[in-house]
Amino acid sequence: GFMSYTHVFIMNRLLAASEEVKAEAAKLDRAYSMVFELGNGPRGETVWWDMRFDPEAGVSFSLQEPSAPGDLTLKGDYATYINFLKGMVAGEVPRDAQEPVTSVGDPGVVETVAAVFAASQKVKSP
Prior knowledge:
Layout: H1 5-17, H2 19-25, E1 32-39, E2 47-54, E3 58-62, E4 72-77, H3 78-89, E5 101-105, H4 108-112, H5 114-121
Parallel strand pairs: 1-4
Antiparallel strand pairs: 1-2, 2-3, 4-5
């Protein structure tokens, strides 16, 4: 399932093998993290998505609460955000629509990791 531990394990292996992702990540001046903190998950819990962009390790995900604050943390409601993502994939939400999250930290991180993020989006799980 989407963002299950199995999905994240598979995606991390595919991302680590992607030459394009590694090449884009190598251009970064340091490691960056973008964290999603989504409340009211399927069992009422907070759901964490921690995406790391590292010039040496490439891109990876974690579903664990990060041990340190992300460079950018995006906070919102789990169901609202999942429905937003589904709408984007289905073409029902414009690509430039405002995400239903609030941000804490450095919003410039999005631009800093944009090329690495774009390369990682090309990697698809089987």
